[in-house]
Amino acid sequence: MKRLFTLILVSALTVGTAAAWGRLGHATVAKIAENHLTKKAKKQITEYLHGESIVKWASYADDSKSDLLVDVGFEPSNTKRHISYPHTFEANADCTAYRDIRKGDTYVKNCIYFIEKMANDLKENAKEMSDSVRVASIALIVHFVGDMHCPEHIRYPEDQTIGYYKVYFGKEQIRYHSLWDTQIIATRLPWSFTDTAYLLDTYTKEQIAAATAGTPYDWGYDSASASRKVHEVKEGAKLDKRLYLDEYQPLAEDQIRKAGYRLAALLNETFK
To answer: Does the structure show a pLDDT above 60 at 73?
Structure first.
């Protein structure tokens, strides 16, 4: 079987701690997607996941980062292998998503690149894969599609930080990335993922068709364009909690909603 990527199942290696959406957000993305799977795709995925729902695997990638690294090949400068947990993507100045995983001797953590490759590998070779690689591939796709829609998992030319700095959210000082991991959703939607999915799964068939048109890189452009204003908040900013949620919670909800529909479209195409 021709492998398009390699998962490194070694827990001793260290990776970053960034997460996107938290458990509520990722589970909501997966639940919305599950609601829109075709019967054939759902049956095949359920078989590969041994009867379990994709919702159960929605945060597995964050829980098991050091076991789900991706081998991206030799590092040009010293011929050592480079491994990564590619859960972000980089946008160009015009918000198009960067398409490769390397810039000269520098590696780019490009989740969209691996979403496409893992989906293609599953589509062409799922039955030939080992059980562990097949399960991990599905779990990573479910998680990374959520990640690529989180505004603080996008790197722009003017801001590569993904929110790794402190701001004041009301009276609380928190890391800005963490605000977008959890609080942007959980502060006003403190229900279960099923409740949240029910509330957010509101697009018409025509709206879903428009949102899911194109490729994951087209979705990346849409996500980067919509999310850029989030990165205007700088370190030490004092954010009024009510005003910030009034302005940005609708964006967070729509990003989660689109992620769910797009994940379903990708899985339906992969397992058609």
So the answer is: yes
Q: Which of 8, 148, 147, 4 is CA-nearest to residue 71?
A: 8
pLDDT by residue (tens digit) across 212-247? Answer: 999 999 999 999 999 999 999 999 999 999 999 999
Q: Which of 2, 7, 257, 261 is nearest to 132 (CA)?
A: 7
Whole-angstrom distance, CA of residue 87 vs CA of residue 154:
9
pLDDT value, residue 71: 81
- Angstrom distance (rounded) from CA 262 to CA 268: 10
- Give me the helices (H) in 88-233, please: 111-125, 131-147, 176-178, 184-186, 193-200, 205-212, 216-227
CATH of span 6-270: 1.10.575.10
Q: How far apart are CA 34 and CA 145, in angstroms?
A: 13
Residue 48 CA to residue 132 CA, distance in Å, equals 10
Q: Quick count: other Cβ atoms within 10 Å of Cβ 226?
A: 17
Residue positions counted in the chain: 272
Whole-angstrom distance, CA of residue 202 vs CA of residue 36: 12
Q: Rounded to two decimals, what is the model's pTM? A: 0.91
Q: Where are the domains of the chain?
A: 6-270
**Predicted pLDDT at 19:** 61
